[in-house]
Amino acid sequence: MCPRADLRLYGKARAARGGPQSLVHHAQYRCHDIRVVATQNPHGWQMTLHILHQGRRIVRLHEPAQLYLDFAHARIAGLLLAYETLDLRLGEQCDRRPESS
């Protein structure tokens, strides 16, 4: 899991202009940057996940059908999904490496 010092939260307050509110959570895990973007709509919060490695986006996941109660739920779901995705990807890369004996 990522250490507490890496948890950063930034908000984009669009609600004042009449648009939906959007909040972004930044974290790091296994040398990758994770961005969980949650956008509020009248029925709940939608989550989009961005995983970056050395500044380049390697994964973008958007769940338009899934709604969350609040930003905290969307953030937790996004982080868990990011951890699982990275563990699977990095595990596959380790399996492909030839063994040295």
Word description of this protein:
This protein has 1 helix and 5 strands, in the order E-E-E-E-E-H. Helices cover 26% and strands 46% of the residues. The radius of gyration is 16 Å and the shape is elongated. The longest helix has 26 residues, at 71-96. With 101 residues, it is α+β, with helices and mostly antiparallel strands. Strands 1-2-3-4-5 form a 5-stranded antiparallel beta sheet, with helices on one face. The chain starts with 7 loop residues before the first strand and ends in a 5-residue tail after the last helix. Mean pLDDT is 80; it is low at 1-7. The protein has one helix spanning 71-96, and strands at 8-12, 22-29, 32-41, 44-53, 56-68.
Write a concise synopsis of the structure shown.
With 101 residues, the protein is an alpha+beta fold.
Can you lay out the helices and strands and say which pair or pack?
Elements: E1 8-12, E2 22-29, E3 32-41, E4 44-53, E5 56-68, H1 71-96
Antiparallel strand pairs: 1-2, 2-3, 3-4, 4-5
**Helix content, binned percent:** 25-40%
Structural class: alpha+beta
Task: Compute the average pLDDT.
Answer: 80
Strand order of the largest sheet: 1-2-3-4-5
Order of helices and strands: EEEEEH
Question: How many E-type strands?
Answer: 5
- Gross morphology: elongated
Number of DSSP helices?
1
Radius of gyration from CA coordinates: 16 Å
Strand content: over 45%
Q: Report the end-to-end length measured between terminal Cα atoms.
A: 32 Å
Biggest sheet, open or closed, and with what strands and sense? Answer: 5 strands, antiparallel
Uncertain runs are: 1-7
